[in-house]
Specification:
Blueprint: H1 7-25, H2 32-39, H3 43-49, H4 53-62, H5 64-71, H6 80-86, H7 92-108, H8 112-138, H9 148-168, H10 173-185
Length: 193
């Protein structure tokens, strides 16, 4: 009896291989041959699931969100700080995720489909941060003076910049966390106005 293959599972397996290569060598290292070797399957199998390298990269971009969701898994009552800290590359998994995301950002500059995936993902992340900001304000922990979505965009820009600084080694993880805390202290309800 021939072995049954879960096609979506195989596509995810190939995308995981793309992400591992991208974390190690950037997208320049991603070829059908390299992906096949990394995934432990034949080049023909990769081509069966993806007609081209571009199609494979576009699909791999759709799987980046899963990595973010794993990284930002927070307590049952998450706070905005928990989510922001989880986005920083503070450990090997976080570093790998940031390297892969950065590699795809460069690709997104010339690929509208990949850029669309990033815009959608950023919008969802911004909405999650804004909701946590509103929850913090409702709980009396935060004092927002402006639009929660704009504050969320500011916080995400801060974390993105700090993430790059940690990757490049001119900020430590602890320094990045301290800067996130400094910004959050500026909207904390306990501060004097």
């Amino acid at each position: 009896m021939p072995k049954r293959v879960d096609h979506e599972d195989r596509r995810r397996q190939i995308a995981a291989a793309v992400r591992r290569i991208a974390a190690d060598r950037g997208l320049e290292g991603v070829s059908l041959n390299e992906v096949a070797a990394e995934a432990g399957i034949s080049k023909g199998s990769v081509q069966h699931y993806f007609a081209s390298r571009d199609e494979m990269l576009r699909y791999a971009t759709t799987t980046l969100r899963g990595g973010i969701e794993e990284r930002i898994a927070t307590p049952s009552e998450p706070r905005v700080r928990d989510l922001l800290i989880a986005l920083l590359p503070l450990d090997e998994a976080g570093r790998d995720h940031a390297l892969v995301a950065n590699a795809f950002v460069v690709r997104a500059l010339k690929d509208p489909e990949i850029a669309g995936h990033f815009r959608t993902g950023h919008g969802q992340l911004r909405d999650a941060v804004a909701a946590l900001l509103v929850a913090g304000q409702d709980a009396g922990d935060l004092l927002l003076t402006g639009d929660p979505a704009m504050e969320a965009d500011l916080l995400l820009a801060l974390v993105a910049g700090l993430g790059d600084a940690v990757l490049l080694g001119y900020q430590t993880g602890d320094e990045a966390i301290a800067l996130v805390d400094l910004h959050l202290s500026r909207i904390a309800a306990s501060r004097e106005r």
